Input
Amino acid sequence: PKLLVLSGNPTHRIPLIDFGNLITKKLSLLVCSHVVTENKPKNIGKLKEDVQGWMKKQKVSGFYNVLQNSNFEEGASACLALSGLGRLAPNMLLLGFRTEWDKSFSKTM
Output
């Protein structure tokens, strides 16, 4: 399977990245995507370079994609549209749940 992981910063979601790496068996495509929703300028190039280096150090064979958008849903949709090309396009999406998601969900309702 070719996998797109909406992980945020992979250094903060290590178990999710490890799970995605196990699914791909280190043979097929793994793309970790991060949607930055902050409006202040961020050095995305340096972030991408640092995380790609971290992934190499952790022996995760994959790519890291980061983009900045004020709306998370639009950013995630853009990640889906921009990740991969032709046969290299991801065919699975992986995302994790927050800790105590049921309590935080009831607060927002």
About this structure: The chain is about 40% helix and 20% strand. The longest strand covers residues 30-36.
